[in-house]
Amino acid sequence: MDDDVLARAARIAADWLESLDVRPVGETAGLEELRERLGGPLPDGPVDPLTVVEELAAAADPGLIGSPGGRYFGFVIGGGLPAAVAADWLTTVWDQNAGLYACSPAASVAEEVAGEWLRELFRLPAGSSYAFVPGCQSAHLTCLAAARHHVLRRAGWNVEERGLAGAPAVRIVVSARRHTTIDRALRLLGFGTASLTVVPADAAGRMDVAALRNALHTGGPAIVCAQAGEVNTGAFDDLSAIADATSAAGAWLHVDGAFGLWVLASPRLRHLAAGAERADSWATDAHKWLNVPYDSGIAFCAHPEPHRAAVSTTADYLVQSGPDGPRDQIDWTPGFSRRARAFPVYAALRSLGRRGVADLVERCCGHARTFAAGLADVPGCEVLGKVVINQVLFRFGDDDTTDRVLRHVVDSGEAWLSGTMAGGRRAIRLSVCNWRTSADDIERTLTAFRRAVAAT
């Protein structure tokens, strides 16, 4: 019976992937229809597993978004490399609790190997620690917890023992164009908005370094959050200059590299993130540019001691290895019981190799440039700024026209993109982050925009 259910699920999954090029990218059913299809009373008794799987797949299908396909350009969402998807299936079947070495030696070692591969790929300092977490939000939480421990410890305060009440004030210096996950992580760590010193950013979203230096002038415990890849424009803060300023002030430098950190894997593009290696911590996602299934984020820390001190835990009943033993993931992540996320990351990295990762990043950036160039022939389109990496920001005339054109393209099913705000006005953002995206996908999307303009 298990074989029948798994084989049927595999067939449904394969059919779904094969349909991505021809099915609408967006959903085809609304909220009430999906509630009707998936809802109903909880059965009183068991239902045959094969029936459950088949009916679930049929009911969910019109509410699924074709985000694994080549014409999904929303929210910097990647697809799933074949090896990573297959490894993720195995991860589910193996069902390992990847919290302790004792629970799954293979999961522990796979995380150790994949973490070191990533550290080398990004050229981060030797000996940097790492944690596999659900996403960049959790990676920020992990890194900033380590930062909080470090800067307060230097000020003579043990925050894990004494908490924040009565602690020396910590200044958190952030850019006006930071990602919202930074604020949320800081809030969860007990830093309210009054703790934030917000420095201005230029039109592309790059932090004003002179303003940063002024903000750090007064001294005292400080954490600076910089950015590698602004979410709308893809712009990079001047990480070398920021590292100079934070080093001189004795502040901790954290880099939000949710997708932009991956340029470090490309010999042609790594200059954009020059100076990143001088930071104290870094956060990124593997479910973006590495194209592993959701969810998968990674935190890196140049200082293992505060990293471990901030998040590790012990209990009498746990079988823990100790500082000199095998890797216990619980020492590095905020999670306790946790999925073995390193298996898909390991598979993706091994299937691509160093050159394959670089090619994936460069190819996506090339598609973004092609799309931006093609927009020049679309009547009324204004491309906002130069394409830096994989993000294209553009608009059509006024706000209403921009929204109507976007709605027409999404409703056509040819592509899926999201709207945003740029300079106080509505805009459209295209993000190329999928290994499946081809030149044909870009041309089909451009054609969809030409038709949308003609129709509006």
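(the above was protein one; protein two follows)
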Amino acid sequence: MRQVLACVFGVLLFTTLSTTSHAKTEQVGGIYDISIAGFTVGRGTLSLVLQGSAYSAKVGMEPAGIGTLFSTGKGGAEATGWLRGSRVLPSRYTMASTAANRDFFVNLRQGSGHIRKAEVIPQFKPSKTRIKMTNRHKRNAVDPLSAAVIPVNSRSKVLDKSVCDRKLPIYDGWTRFDVELEYKTTKTVSGRGYEGAVVVCKVKWTPVAGHRPERKNVKMLAAARDMEAWFAPVGSSSRVLIPYRISIPTSTGQLLIQAERLDMVSSLNTASKTNN
């Protein structure tokens, strides 16, 4: 879960895009509060740039609140790829983080919805109980950051129940798992840089490979039925949603990741240019 959380939220850095068409650009910058049992333990920021059918995202996370007293964990990740209808087709993903005085690194090359090449540090230690990872598990899979970008087929569907009608097959470099979404309700939120409707999905987590089934946290997450993800639409014309709030049970209390501020900017590119 440490890898997943570090990949979903983090340091706000806009990537460089070279634009050569009249496509519209949507940019989102977000700051997220991360708390456990009501106590702030971290802060993350999210950057997403949509240029036509292409996307580029960067994230990171660092301790905050009482988290600065006992945690030295921090990290960041970035991903790029393409949107095809309601599908995300990543091209590359990198993640680097430090936790408990250990460094973690992932470099994925992806294509046609599959993991083509993976470089991971450190490697898991051998274990007789670990579910073996095979090439089959890397087909029809996406990285954790790209999985947080939720496209729909049309703008008219951006707040529809169908937003939650999907199963996300995620590969983080160490493990392969499924995140299945199911519609719960639609809410109206305000006061955090975004005012409007959000789609609330129930979340079911299923381990697929790379896990050790006997581990307590694996059993707890697989059995959890109170996980939720809230999604907010990007801008006024985009057909893409991003996480507004995520709630996950842990052994020390409910982990809550919630937007503290969201800033959305739209612009129309009328000439070839480079944005930094």
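Reviewer note on protein two: The chain has one domain: 2-268.
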